[in-house]
Fold:
Amino acid sequence: VVQPGERVTVPITVAIPDSVRPGGLYGAALIAEGGEQKGEVASGAQVVSRLGSLFFVRVLGDVIESGHLEDFRVSGPAKLFLDSRPIEFEMLFSNEGSVHLTPYGIVQIRNVWGNVVDEIRIEPYFALPGSERSRVIKWDSPKGIGPYTAAVYLNRGYGDLVDERALTFWMVPWKTLAPSALAVVVLAIVFYV
Structure:
């Protein structure tokens, strides 16, 4: 019995049979409250609290480590000009290997003069073998107007291989600029009429 706020260590042993081929094995240990549920059941539904811990086991031997950055783009429908904040970038990483990979890296944002205005860390995450994993990176602080270039440098998680992709987008906060533009048009009409 674990009391609220109490911490318990549960030893778990993973035994791999000799006949298992090299590569990755994946699973989870789930701990549910109370084994046999003695709580009330309402309308045929029952609530069960569970806690899980993932297991990523690598069986040593001849494994295939292979993956790459498949796509890097601005999230959402394609637009010529972006006007809202934050801006979200979407990456797609493909793992073609036989073990999980943990890609990580950075996204650098450069202004029209090529100066780095921001860097966003991409914390390590896992991509299971034979799968594609999408990741969204938010940029909360676009400042100014004009073109920006976002470049991703993604380490594949093995062999120190880094994939690079870049895209250019225009930041035009028209909702902020519209009142100023309207004021200029009104002043021009007043002075010329």
Summary: The CA atoms of residues 104 and 183 lie 47 Å apart. The two ends are 85 Å apart (CA to CA). The chain has a mean pLDDT of 84. The longest helix spans residues 174-192.
